[in-house]
Amino acid sequence: MAERKVYFFEEGHFGMKNLLGGKGANLAEMTAAGVPVPPGFTVTTEACMDYFRDGEVFSEELWASIQEALSRLEEKTGQRLGDRVDPLLVSVRSGAVASMPGMMDTILNLGLNDETVEALAAQTGDERFAYDCYRRLIQMFGEVVLGLDSWRFERLLEKLKHNHGCTEDQQLSGAAWQELVQQYKNSVAAAAGRPFPQDVLEQLRLAVEAVFRSWNNQRARIYRGINRISDLQGTAVTIQQMAFGNKGDDCGTGVVFTRNPSTGEPGLYGEFLVNAQGEDVVAGVRTPRPIAELQNIMPEVYDELETWCSKLEMRYGDMQDIEFTVEHNKLFLLQTRGGKRNAQAALRIAVDLVREGRISREEAVRRVELPHLEQLLHRGIDESAGAQPLASGLPASPGAAIGMAVFDADTAESWSREGRPVILIRPETTPDDIHGVLAAEGILTSRGGMTSHAAVVARGMGKPAICGCEALEVDVDARCMSVRGGIGTGVAASLSVGTGAGAGAGAGAGAGAAAASGKGTSTFIREGDWLTLDGSTGRVILGQMPLREPVASEELLKVLRWADEIRRLAVYANADTPEDARTARSLGAQGIGLCRTEHMFFAPERLVVMQQMIAAETELERENALAELLPMQQQDFEGIFEAMDGLPVTIRLLDPPLHEFLPGREELQRKLDATTEKAERLHLQRLLRRSEALRETNPMLGQRGCRLGIMHPEIYRMQAEAVCRAVAACAERGVDVRAEIMIPLVGAAAELGLLRAEVEETARRLLSAEQREARPIRIGTMIEVPRAALTAGQIAVHADFFSFGTNDLTQMTYGYSRDDAEGKFLARYVERKLLPSNPFQVLDTDGVGQLIQMAAENGRAVRPDLKTGICGEHGGDRESIFFCHAIGLDYVSCSPYRIPMARIAAAQAVLEADPLPGRKEAVPV
Ligand code: PEP
Ligand code: MG
């Protein structure tokens, strides 16, 4: 553990990120690179954790170190905190190791009091500016340190503007701000029971402590939960000389990305505000101007900014998100970090960086964020339906979303919990809205830019979002909004057209056409009205639009090919129909790891026959029904074999308990009561009797899987026969068939021994020795019950492969009913940290994983050529895939649309296990 708790920027570097937080480490790195950064120092994350460990006590030792650093900063700047002539003002900012945008607190202008504000006014000759800074400090201090609500201050400001006949903050005079400062101070004293501190050292100490505490505020904890960030890291605190963007029209502040975060296109992309302070841009209070306009207003500053952007991008080997401030035409960079980007942009940037020789292919694959890939595979609006947008805003986060309008986060959360999809509409979002953002299908705001809170958070979550949609008048209290006719104007419209190019020609044209059709009328949207958002083009559409499935981009295909060169695990699909198989293959499946044959019986015309088979009371009746089912199965198998020509297809024999194919007993009884038709009544009575006979207390532990096949050998025989006939028919047509038959839910080796013999007997009956030699059908089992895992060595004697059915294996290892646990208690368990995550989503490597590892090893010890893989839901989960790679399984099998993610994750597992130099973090190059 480091002894020192405080580091000056010039004493650190990027490699100290764990200690200095992302912001502190980057400021250190920027300082080292010669970037114009206002001087300052960072209090370490360890100091923050010490504070919590000591029961939220701020140690005197730490305070002494901070004061010592402050003296050095005063020496460096030639200013003194609290000085009555030339006061030093500082920002006190949070900075976690992992980026948590807007989740923790920041205080600006610290060091102002009734005396220093006068000094600042005299020094700058601008009383208006000085008192504006002071009122901002009192508000931030009141909110962050003293826990007061923002409305307390906002209300006073609104009243002041009203009284002075102003609509904009900039119109207020110095005297008006002075008046507001007095009101703020009174309000703080009344609400907090203590005055705003005039002692600047007290301000500093309390501010640092409050930033420490903000690590554990509600929104930060929720954000960490979602993003799986450890609670044990703490936040660093950066104390830095203020640079002012609000001293006049030769000042400004902005946020710039070194490449377009929506499309990945090279070139500066961002926003700025003239005469404003940093928080104004990110908070979305005023809608900013596109960065290109800075070139006209402050050409030299723009050129310098562009140069530093390019140097920083070069140094970090990645697209950067940079905050800057201009004080009287002098540029300061306040922060740089890897820029958040959407999936499309991430891929384009990674591929471009490889082409530019900045990073390797492996690094490009490593950087792919799987939730982003999901976004790429997201739907958009089906343009053939002729979308007529109500309004247009900034395309802040791509993908299409359909939901009912709601105007506050709590309603969003409660409606979504009731199963009603919602679109959360706000003037702008704040971090306190996070639960609503989480619950909503999409986000729509009337204010704020591409770097506003709503945009950043939605992009991070891969959720469609439209920001800065100025045509909306949102009335949160009345739960409605009016939409001025036509498309939003100004920055929002110009940016959305500008970025529409990356979202496809059709979409861009849609936005343009709608822009021309604005009629100047208003539309009213009330809570509960349906809306469709197109986060890729920024269009807001009334009603529910038809959606289209996504298309893989060139960049995605390229990165997937690179991933394929790296990965060792094969990726199979869980697919039950020829169509699913074709989709899976087009997405890169190297085989089918699980074909659940029961799904083939659910089509209405087949279900009737299936029910006849189940209800059969004589052998003959059953044989007849099975004979009718056989060609249906055979036809499906042939279709799948054809789609997967040359690749393995693993067909699982019937698994679920038979009652699942019958209507519920109550429904049967209702139907019986409602009919007088004799034959119908007989049929229903028979089904009812059968249903009664099949009734089990614990069906998931009852007569299902291989137990069913043993009790009803004719069912498995029919299925094996259908496979063999399909193999023969396809072979005749020249299809390269690699059929595998999988026996589910085996718990004892003898079960598999028996069923294997029966399948082999069917194969011998239906296929010639030559055919069997040319197209051997492999026979294996699922390992789904703990006993199978424990006796894997015995089971392997009869198995050509093991496929771990991690859904059942998780259910049975934990003893959780998979149909009930998620709805009943699992979410609470995860919330209360009784479990690290939902074990039905992320493999429990400590328990279930150990069974898998042991079974795979014991199985291979008996049969070195035993093929092993998993086919539960975990086959598409990144962490679970990492585990499968680590224990040497041969494949993972997942649903078709997760295949691209699985391919990337399997490659990332190799890269994680075998780190390349400089690969772990975006270490500057
Ligand atoms: C499993 O149990 O993991 C599995 C794939 O089978 P099913 O989900 O069909 O029970
Ligand atoms: Mg199962």
TrEMBL record:
Q: Which domain of life is it from?
A: Bacteria
Q: Which PROSITE patterns match?
A: PEP_ENZYMES_2 (PS00742), PEP_ENZYMES_PHOS_SITE (PS00370)
- Pfam families xref list: PEP-utilizers, PEP-utilizers_C, PPDK_N
Q: Which cofactor does it need?
A: Mg(2+)
- Keyword set includes Disulfide bond: no
Q: Which residues form the Pyruvate phosphate dikinase AMP/ATP-binding domain?
A: 18-56, 58-289, 300-350
Q: Which GO terms describe its molecular function?
A: ATP binding; kinase activity; metal ion binding; pyruvate, phosphate dikinase activity
Q: What Gene3D superfamilies does the database record attribute to this sequence?
A: 1.20.80.30, ATP-grasp fold, A domain, ATP-grasp fold, B domain, Phosphoenolpyruvate-binding domains, Phosphohistidine domain, Pyruvate Phosphate Dikinase, domain 2
In terms of SUPFAM superfamilies, this protein maps to: Glutathione synthetase ATP-binding domain-like, Phosphoenolpyruvate/pyruvate domain, Phosphohistidine domain
The entry's active site is H453, C871
Q: What is its EC number?
A: 2.7.9.1
Entry keywords, A to Z: ATP-binding, Kinase, Magnesium, Metal-binding, Nucleotide-binding, Pyruvate, Transferase
Q: Where does substrate bind?
A: R596, R652, E784, G805, T806, N807, D808
> Any idea which positions bind Mg(2+)?
E784, D808
The PEP-utilising enzyme mobile domain extends over 421-538
Domain named PEP-utilising enzyme C-terminal is located at 555-909
Catalytic activity reads: pyruvate + phosphate + ATP = phosphoenolpyruvate + AMP + diphosphate + H(+)
What family does the entry list?
A: Belongs to the PEP-utilizing enzyme family.
Q: What name is this protein filed under?
A: Pyruvate, phosphate dikinase
Organism, by scientific name, is Paenibacillus herberti
